[in-house]
Amino acid sequence: MVLLAGCIIVKDNKVLMCREGKKSCFNQWNFPSGHVENGENIIDGAIRETYEETGLKVKLTGLFPITQIYAGTETHVLFRFKAEVIGGEIKVDKKEILEAKWIELDDLKKMSNKEIRAYHVNYKVIEEIENNKVYPLDILDSNMYGID
Q1: Distance between CA 50 and CA 44 in Å, rounded?
Q2: pTM of the entire predicted model
Q3: Fewer beta carbons below 10 Å: N end or C end of the chain?
């Protein structure tokens, strides 16, 4: 099983998105996210991945529904956190991410499955954003994840 974690950041009806540079999903838009490292908790992984992919420091404010994805012989479990920017400025490592930018929610909804990575999964996130389907962070075990 592979754990993935990332952040959904909405500001002024715009969503922060990353355009992928990896060969398997080259040029597709995705929410900042990635693999949780061995020994790392999902909250730290989401914050780290968001910083690595966007240059922005974030504070987590909620949790979107957890998603399970089957990719060949692997099962991926994706934790997507609602977050707000608390510092930094957008800058990307061009090896992995081509660009990060704010995209209007309506424009994101008009994108095709060729433009958005894991379209069916990420389009569901767009609907969750619109419906504010977010759970409080205390749904997670505070001892396990270090939530105040």
Answers
A1: 10
A2: 0.91
A3: C
pLDDT of residue 142: 65
In CATH, which superfamily holds the domain spanning 2-134?
A: Nucleoside Triphosphate Pyrophosphohydrolase (3.90.79.10)
- Could you identify the residue written with the tokens 């990896």? 22
Mean pLDDT of the region 7-21? 96
Instruction: Give, in order, the Cα–Cα distances in Å from 6 to each of 3, 62, 85, 89.
Output: 10, 12, 13, 18
List the one residue out of 80, 93, 98, 78 whose CA is nearest residue 20. Answer: 98
CA distances from 1 to 47, 58, 123 (A): 21, 26, 23
Containing 51, the helix (H) or strand (E) segment is helix 42-54
pLDDT of residue 94: 82
Q: What Å distances lie between residue 91 and 13, 18, 145, CA to CA? A: 21, 11, 28
Closest CA to 20 of 72, 80, 93, 86: 93
Structure token pair of residue 3: 């754990």
Place of tokens 């660009």: 99
With contact defined as beta carbons under 8 Å apart, do 80 and 30 qualify? no
